[in-house]
Amino acid sequence: MHSVHQLFAKINFRNISTNPPLLLSMLLFVLIFIGTLLLKLPIAVHRPISWLDALFFSTSASTVTGLSPFDTNETFTFFGELVLMVLIQVGGIGVMAFAVFFVILLGKKVSVRQRQLMQEALNAPSLGGVIRLVSWILVLSFAIELVGAFFLALRFVPEFGWARGLFYSLFHSISGFNQAGFSLFPDSMGAYVGDPLINLTMITMITVGGIGFTVLAELLSTHRFRRLSLHAQVMIVGTLVFNCIAVLAVFLIEYNNPRSLGPLGLSDKMWAAFFQGISPRTSGLTTIDPAGLSQATLLLTMLMMFIGAGSTSTSGGIKLTTFMIVIAQAFTFLKGRREVVIYRRTIRHQVIVRAVAVISISLLAVLIGLFLLCLSENQPFLVILFEVVSAFGTAGETIGATADLTPFGKVVIMILMFFGKVGPLTLAFSVTKRSHVDIRYPDGEIYTG
């Protein structure tokens, strides 16, 4: 144990700059590196894969994306699938959270620097209560995943037997809760398109994992909507509104589409629209082939993947609250008001600037990735755009681009997945020096619009 603690002390980075965003990015990079080594082992694969493909799978799992150039079940052995599951679990909840929790189990004291890292990772307002929040997050996450695995086992155990059925249940429960698009089935969850138990369990896992840990903590402490924080209120209302709109839109647009909902019965159509309307915003699991969706639904899906779920959740994207703040700012401008007000609460100017910065940097990243892939890939523009947005949003859905990516294209997608998981501002702050200047310059006029 003493040697383990010494190893963790090195992760403290005492001899280098204490830049929390940079350290968090480095921890994720280390996780990806370890995952690559494990997935390259002969015991992990049925047939040898290249180092680039091992790195791609490790990056996709660690960033809880789910994009994969090969079929997961046919490529990896039980050991390889177990490695993917662990990468999804650690990458989803956070490397630093597990590291701190491990130190707590060893009975060691968590340093101020480690608390600062957790504060940065969880967007916590202060250092106080961070360790308690980390412990609570891990315990709650494991509990939710076990409950999800139990309900999935009711279907998978009779179908695949005890050993395989329980592993499939746990794997897909972890994949769903952590918003990863990995599945051990060749058609994702397509075989269960009309199964109420599978649909309800997976959507519940995806929704609970995507709403954010801070919101979950508030919901467990109070059951009155008005007592919730503004963030929790906006997140809950936004999730309900966006999910309802997306489900209804998918159902109406795809109802007669022969490549998606068309051949299904009414009940299966409703379940398929329910799953496809909610899953893409945070997870890449599907019950219908996304390649068969109409262009309008694909555009809606890309918008949902770009937005993502909640802050401090296991998903990527710009985050739902970021999108809603910018929309509120736009309406405030159109109404001629000075301040953005949501639920009788004024949104600070710094928060609005941060939201605009997140969206601006994210759009720039998507456009650069799109440009590079248009140069390297011989695929239709819509297919490439969908792949880029899916990688950035760590959603994991694809309409056929992943399997045919060139080596350069795989590198671009891996960078986008890493960027989407770490977060635009976190990655920007990790490579730039933040300074506070008290100089005030004269106002200047630039015409816009």
TL;DR?
It is found in: Cell membrane. The chain has 449 residues and is an all-alpha fold.
Describe what you observe in this structure:
- By secondary structure, this protein is mostly helical.
- The protein has one domain (2-431).
- It has 19 helices and two strands.
- Strands 1-2 form a two-stranded antiparallel ribbon.
- Helix 6 crosses helix 8, helix 12 packs across helix 13 (266-278) and helix 16 runs antiparallel to helix 18 (407-422).
- The longest helix has 31 residues, at 130-160.
- It is globular and about 70 Å long.
- The model is unreliable at 7-18 (pLDDT under 50).
Q: What is the SS-derived class?
A: mainly alpha
Q: Tally the helices: what do you get?
A: 19
Quick one: how many beta strands?
A: 2
Calculate the mean pLDDT score and round it.
85
Strand content: under 5%
The end-to-end distance, rounded to whole angstroms, is 62 Å
Please estimate the helix content: 55-70%
What integer value in Å does the Rg equal?
22 Å
Q: Low-confidence segments, ≥5 residues, pLDDT <50?
A: 7-18
Main sheet characteristics: 2 strands, antiparallel
The 3D shape can be described as globular
- Count of spatially separate domains: 1
* Order of secondary-structure elements: HHHHHHHHHHHHHHHEEHHHH
Strand neighbour order, sheet with most strands: 1-2
